[in-house]
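Hey, weird one. I pasted the Solute carrier family 2, facilitated glucose transporter member 5 sequence into the form twice and got a warning about non-standard characters only the second time. First submission, copied straight from the form history:
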Amino acid sequence: SEETVTLMWSFVVSIYSIGGLLGSLSAGYLSVRFGRKKSMLIANIPALLSAALMGLSQLCGSYEMIVAGRLFSGVCGGLALNVHIMYAGESAPRKLRGLIAITASTAIGVGKFAGFALGLRELLGVEALWPILLAANALPALVQLLILPFFPDSPRYLLIDKKDKEGCIKAVKQLWGDSDHMAEIDDMMAEKEAICGENAKSVCDLFRDKAVRWQFITLFLVSSCMQLIGVNVV
């Protein structure tokens, strides 16, 4: 019936956010357990799986594959976005850190525009080609799988989480050149000493921490406004 089709269509659209929540909740654990770079590589697994499921859904005659593919795509988005911001911010020199971190928002904007453009009827938004459109997220995942292994891991992760000072210095030189970067390394050493012995904070601890209360409220309001501007409805 029409009501059932509408329900399933709504479920296909909204389950992406559920996957994004699952991916975001796992980002902290995976980024510490495997490192920033490996976590970003792991994020490509659900991306490729989602592309395969959605791309083959018409051939298999299964709308359930689209639902599962959207879920895995959301997991990839939630995981990759959070880990990317950590990796970019920790790998950039201090004077470029803000500029590098904002590339995540820029990439999201470019990706949305590319999705809208590819969805035009003149391109892939037709009945015969929509499986290719849904599987298009495999392309950036494959590019990252080929390129990212040549990059070093986050210097901060190597020094603080892995306690590998030599690896940290090697990563800093590979990322920032052969100049003297001991000031930045000393800052990371000071941070390591400051957090030594502290347990990882939970989400509840974040709510109770008065030191970041206003930053938390600001981010909460900005994120809420982003959900209310209508882009999701469109």
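That's the output from the first submission. The warning seems to come from a hidden character in my clipboard, not from the data itself. Residues 67 and 167 are 42 Å apart (CA to CA).
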